[in-house]
Amino acid sequence: GAGVSQTPSNKVTEKGKYVELRCDPISGHTALYWYRQSLGQGPEFLIYFQGTGAADDSGLPNDRFFAVRPEGSVSTLKIQRTERGDSAVYLCASSDHGLAGGDTQYFGPGTRLTVL
Amino acid sequence: AQSVTQLDSQVPVFEEAPVELRCNYSSSVSVYLFWYVQYPNQGLQLLLKYLSGSTLVESINGFEAEFNKSQTSFHLRKPSVHISDTAEYFCAVSAYMDSNYQLIWGAGTKLIIKP
């Protein structure tokens, strides 16, 4: 079956611009996660959705970052007024339930964001 | 705060030699432990995980990891590596924080196989 997909695979933008990153999870997965990965580091948690609602957004660095999942499937991560420090690979993952800590998360290939 | 330490950023090893990738975590509560692997130009995928029961867990491609509660470690080992094992390996801990489980990740270890 289809895995997690993310679009675009690469995004280059200028400082101050607005960007949207899309994630299409595995069909039927209720939990969806966004992470950010900088060079030489592991993924850093941003936000977790259970269905349509954000169950934990404690990882969002500031109010320029926002994410939605209106129908409980596709999610969009939105970044306003981008800064050079936002440059990273943004990863999306989904899992069956998300309510139990032992769930396996299935990752997409990521979107590489470069802010010039 | 929870943290995961992968002590080596890179581990070079000859083909068919054994390897150990080290992972330590800080936690005073029960956790679930994971190793994920990222092959060149691919996304992260689960290699193996510890939830409960036997402290030794195995993957289908010959890797194993042992949960050591007293040392808060979850080191990954393979008795004989192959060129196809070239990848970056990430250790992660799932811990209950602020009413939800969160995955806390190590910085990764690049396994470099020398022919």
Brief summary of the model shown:
The complex is a heterodimer of chains A (116) and B (115). Chain A is an all-beta fold and 116 residues long.
Describe this protein's structure.
The complex is a heterodimer of chains A (116) and B (115). Chain A is 0% helix and 47% strand. With 116 residues, chain A is mainly beta. In chain A, strands 2, 4, 5, 6, 9, 10 and 11 form a seven-stranded mixed sheet that branches. Chain A has a four-stranded antiparallel sheet with strand order 1-3-8-7, with no helix packed on it. Chain A is globular. Chain A starts with a strand and ends with a strand. With 115 residues, chain B is mainly beta. Chain B is built from no helices and twelve strands. In chain B, strands 2, 5, 6, 10, 11 and 12 form a six-stranded mixed sheet that branches. In chain B, strands 3-9-8-7 form a four-stranded antiparallel sheet, with no helix packed on it. Chain B starts with a strand and ends with a strand. Chain A binds chain B through residues 3-4, 33, 40-45, 48, 55-56, 58-59, 91, 93, 98, 100-102, 104-110, and chain B through 4, 9, 31-32, 34, 36, 42-46, 49, 51, 90, 92, 94-96, 98-108.
- Quaternary state of the chains: heterodimer
What is the makeup of the main sheet of chain B? 6 strands, mixed
Portion of residues in helices of chain B? under 10%
List how many beta strands of chain A DSSP finds. Answer: 11
**Which class do the helix and strand fractions of chain B yield?**
mainly beta
Report the sheet-strand fraction of chain B. over 45%
Number of DSSP E strands of chain B? 12
- How far is it from the N-terminal to the C-terminal residue of chain A, by CA? 37 Å
